[in-house]
Structures are given as structure tokens and as C-alpha cells.
Amino acid sequence: MKDHSHNEEHFNSSEMVTDIVIGMSDGLTVPFALAAGLSGAVDSTHIVVIAGLAEIAAGSIAMGLGGYLAGKTEQDHYSSEQKREEWEVDHLPEKEKEEVRVIFEQMGMTPDTQKLIVDEMAKDKAKWVDFMMRYELGLEKPDPKRARNSALNIGISYIVGGMVPLTPYFFVAKPIDGLKLSALITVVCLFIFGFFKAKATGQHPWAGAFRVMLIGSVAAAAAFFIARLFNH
Predict the structure, then answer these.
(1) Is residue 201 part of a domain?
(2) Average model confidence (pLDDT) for the chain?
(3) How many structural domains comprise the chain?
(4) Looking at residue 203, what DSSP letter applies?
(5) N or C terminus: fewer CB in 10 A for the chain?
């Protein structure tokens, strides 16, 4: 039971890390690009701040809603497949027993062992269905709180990431000065975030750090120069 609990905690932690990565990735880059673009088009930090806060609010809600819908879709898919397996166990028991036997055969068990396990499993419908869900369909039962947790993790991560490039604009009078500080702070944060993101996903950390930093910098630079071009 202790090992099982440890695995569940590891699995849930992995999901949380995935959510944070999703939220922070967009949170750092999109508001950064928006603030950079506005800095090239307007002379008021107030406008940059207001627009930035509006974008962070809208972006966090949109991203959080996306995470919630993804979690609900996973739950609905599992529930639908579970109902189908329950119907097959009730109405096509011999077919389902044969499917279980084939799974154990592929595991290298002897015919006698296969029959023994299949007969024992058939006595407990819940365990039988759970086995079919895991080993026939490859589906794990999703956490019922997954959709809600995903929405919160992604939304909050987006807000935290978005405030990084926007915060310098609170303390300067000119948008271009805010952009200089924002670019410095955000590029460093993108590099650090990219490093740990790559490390968590099994990629080369330094390459991942430079890649994330480059993508965010290019997006902000493009927004700034396009805004300058159209402004003039």
C-alpha cells in the first residue's frame, strides 16, 4: 500500500508540473510580446499596464478553461468506455473471458494458470471491468478533481508568468524604459524556466533554456518592431 501511494503522489505531481509548464510557457511569452508591442506604439505606461492586466486576466481564464475541458474530456471518455465494458461483461461474458485469457497468454502464462485467473476474476465484476480498462484499453481511472486542479494550476501559472514582464512598467514613466527592464528580467526568467522545463521533460537542459529564451525574445522583438512600423 505504501508503494502504491507513492506512485499516485508521483503521478499527481507529474500532472501538476505539466500544468505549470503549460501556464508559465504562455504566461511569460504572450504578455511579454504584448507589452513589447505596445511599448513601440504608445507613450503611456498606463496603457501598457491596463492592456497587460486585461490580457493576463483573459489569458489565464482561457488557458484555465482549456485545462478544465481537457480534464473533463478525459473523465467523460473513461466513463463512456467503462460503461461499454460493463455492458460487455454482462452480455458477452465468454467473449470478455477470452480477451482476458489472451492478455495472460501474451504475458507468457500457462493455459492452466490462464483459466484459473480468468475464472477467479469473473467472480468480481468491478475488478474484471477495471482489468479490461487497464490492460485491454490502456486507460487509467482519472482523478475526479483533475479538471478543477488543472484549471487552477494552469490559470495561476499563467498569471504568475504574465506578471513577470509586466511588473517593470509599474515603476517607470516611459514605456521604452519599462521594456528595457522587462526584457532583461523576462529573458532571464525564460532561460531559467526553459532550463527546468527541459530537465523535467528529459531534454537537454541548456538547449531547452536557450530555445525557450530565443522563442520569447523573437516574439517580443517582432511585436515591438511591427508596432513601431505601423505606428510610423
Answers:
(1) yes
(2) 86
(3) 1
(4) S
(5) N
